[in-house]
């Protein structure tokens, strides 16, 4: 989903499945290996070894039970679906506590002498998320619901409904592929932490770098989009009259206010501290959705905002079954990208699964979330478009003409938007810090004092870059369309079939007598190179060919989306509808 916020994730530089004091050494009977000896992205570790330990972990997962209070739906509070509800303290000691107790009880005994079983228990003690928590995390959405009506404005009823349905189905299938690969490659010894980790284990370091760069790019632009959106909301609230056509505050200054707020509040390093706010943001969005639908059904469209944003003159509301007149192929593609944006949560699916007690159950949370989002988006989008037609604004509640209700919706939108931006920024900065600053520039771990000081310095730089993006491209429709095509579409539609094709080929290429031998720590292969790839492809040629077509189709769609968004930006600048670093609000 667009705006997916990982409120329950632990991404403070450490792996959520491994304590920083020890790693898991399956090859040693009485001791576990320190993580320094287990390089996270070690090219010498083979695909077969990852699969071997994943099979052991999955077998153990089947015996993990989830308490009734974690899954049951409660009318009073939806306890099972709330990832931020207070959880019971695990009865298992953490690895750090074990080490401290070992050192204090016997001065002659060295730390890290922890048995394999003790480590597994301690490692799994920090995995607390249930499939209900995953449901909440995926549906914690900000921008997505409010852009669907504009997507129908660009495509019409028929194409809009059909394409939203198709993209919902393929987004679910992409999530399913990620889930299958996670089960096959993740283990207690070699845990998967990010989307890039799957890319590394299937195709190597270069593809991992590409995935991490796109993830960083997407999160940064998401923060920029929210800065623009909140700037627009504040500009409407700051207007001096209900007609929204009188001078208010300078738009660029209002955007800068949110950048400063992000620099200050972004100093919160742990997402757990933002957890309750993230849960609160869900219900704020529900209120705004209901209020928007109720108000647009009993009021005229916001003609001033529509004219300012799209140069549409007042007149009767017009809706169309097919693409409306005046909206060309490029405009329809940008509208289609809003459907992509709506289902853009796959980027963080691996992080969600890494937090789960039972990754086997991920499909339940994903299926419920995708189904819920699909029906809510369809209902909201069709309803608002039916009442506002060609006057529909990209952020639907900003198209409310009733000034009082518009202000209420904007106030709620500002709050939930800031929460989303903080979470995006938190995750985005950690992606950059862990994968760029630590890996290439030897920055200290965020768990250290030096790392915490580095965080203080990095946060303002990140938010400053997001502010520059927001001020340079203050077009929510084209900017969100661009990021949907360039990044989101890849994570939800292009990468899953591409990665699974490589995963399936490598798996099917393993012959009798080949595989990883835990006794020797060696992997046996009878051949290498292209011969293995061809053999693996042929063994499941129908599925692999389908995934190849799926991958190529998604890639072509992405190219069309990027091209259309850029053409739309150029046209908007050329007509004067948009100007960079301007005091004029895009909706005033």
From TrEMBL:
Its main location: membrane. Residues 128-502 form the Amino acid transporter transmembrane domain. It is found in: Membrane. It holds the Pfam family Aa_trans. The chain crosses the membrane at residues 131-152, 158-179, 209-228, 248-265, 277-297, 333-354, 366-388, 408-433, 453-473, 479-499, 541-574. The keyword Metal-binding does not apply. It is a multi-pass membrane protein. GO terms for molecular function: L-amino acid transmembrane transporter activity. Keywords: Membrane, Transmembrane, Transmembrane helix. The keyword Transmembrane applies. Belongs to the amino acid/polyamine transporter 2 family. This is Amino acid transporter transmembrane domain-containing protein. GO terms for cellular component: membrane. InterPro entries: AA_transpt_TM.
